[in-house]
Hints:
By secondary structure, this protein is of the alpha/beta class.
Amino acid sequence: MDLGIAGRWALVSGASKGLGFGCAHALVQEGVNVIVVARTASAIEDAGQRLRASAAQGARVIALAADITTPEGREAAFHAQGGPGMDLDIVVTNAGGPPPGDFRNWDRDAWIKAVDANMLTPIEMIKATVDGMAARGFGRIVNITSSAVKAPIDILGLSNGARSGLTGFVAGVARSSIAAKGVTINNLLPGKFDTDRLAGTFAATAQKMGKTVEEVRTLQAAQVPARRFGTPEEFGAICAFLCSTHAGYITGQNVLADGGGYPGTF
């Protein structure tokens, strides 16, 4: 299927590895020009090289080391040299999740850091780009959040709270006047995908349960109806579809990709 987005410009944050890289990889394979951002220079440059090697239809890749959770980092991303400036067609927001733990140990600073990275930063990225998208008649914003907004995970309270706040915000703004101007905003909710983030969660769970990490990994894979963890590649494919011309009638939604793990009907 031709997704109809070749030649457009996308910004993908948190793109040096894992789900962010998976999304960027799927987009460049569709001929989308991408600006990929992450904090570590060596990691994002390596990701940029790998993306260039798989880019289709002459798609360009700009790799930028910046902290997207800061105003300076966002400004650098929006005005990356060689990019389109603020005239982005696609924005994929993604930031590393806050650490797991016991809520009794989190102070105000921990909560502010989580909310800033996983709620306020995506909102700032939406605010900076959505009106331009509306004026041009096309825009796709995909926020990588978490299945925890539907089924909270006890040791991920910081993530549960911050990402749920973003979910509520998107539910309103996606249904505002921009919906009639070709702009969609959706949240993509990963369940258990085989990433460094999942490995960190397993380590915390193993310590809490008194088991080995491998034991926890085996137990948790068995709890997924698909009996496996997802891959960044299949996550990226879902993201690319939500960014496509074919997804123009999907907005304000929480798209859950979890191998059937969520037990609810709705």
